[in-house]
């Protein structure tokens, strides 16, 4: 068995990645509900719709003026929500990559990985 699996940093990194994926999943699901409700022209005064719009506003707000929404007969194709979902996914992947950079590696493992990187360039 590889000694890096027995490293004291492996379990915290694993838990950290689980937390990041869980948080991303929650944000993505809420934003997906927002996207679908806007697309279907849901009544913003309805309790569930209002809850989704209010709880996702903080995540969608930085992107709301990037694109105009496409409106057709009460439905809105909110491109900015799709952009927000993509950006949050990229951020989550970046955070997870940082976690893996902090993982303890053995000298032979590091040498092998460096050789692979060198051969790619």
Mean pLDDT: 87
Describe the main β-sheet briefly: 2 strands, antiparallel
Number of discrete helical segments: 4
What is the number of E strands?
2
Share of residues in strands: under 5%
Q: How do the strands line up in the largest sheet? A: 1-2
Describe this structure in words.
- The protein is mostly helical and 121 residues long.
- It has one domain (3-120).
- Helices cover 67% and strands 5% of the residues.
- It is built from four helices and two strands; from the N terminus they run ααββαα.
- The protein has a two-stranded antiparallel sheet with strand order 1-2.
- Strand 1 and strand 2 (75-77) form a beta hairpin.
- Helix 1 (10-39) crosses helix 2 (47-60) and helix 1 (10-39) packs antiparallel against helix 3 (79-101).
- The protein is elongated.
- The two termini are 30 Å apart.
Layout: helices, strands, pairs:
Elements: H1 10-39, H2 47-60, E1 70-72, E2 75-77, H3 79-101, H4 107-120
Antiparallel strand pairs: 1-2
Helix pairs in contact: 1-2, 1-3
Report a brief summary of the structure.
This protein has helices at 10-39, 47-60, 79-101, 107-120; strands at 70-72, 75-77. The protein is mainly α.
Keywords:
4 helices, two-stranded antiparallel ribbon, mainly alpha, 121 residues
């Amino acid at each position: 068995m590889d000694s890096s699996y027995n490293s004291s940093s492996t379990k915290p990194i694993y838990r950290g990645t689980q937390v990041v994926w869980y948080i991303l999943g929650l944000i993505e699901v809420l934003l997906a509900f927002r996207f679908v409700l806007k697309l279907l022209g849901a009544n913003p005064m309805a309790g569930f719709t209002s809850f989704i719009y209010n709880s996702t506003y903080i995540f969608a707000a930085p992107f709301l003026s990037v694109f105009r929404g496409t409106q057709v007969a009460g439905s809105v194709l909110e491109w900015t929500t799709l952009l927000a979902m993509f950006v949050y996914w990229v951020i989550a992947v970046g955070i997870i990559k940082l976690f893996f950079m902090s993982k303890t590696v053995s000298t032979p493992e590091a040498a092998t990985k460096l050789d692979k990187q060198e051969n790619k360039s």
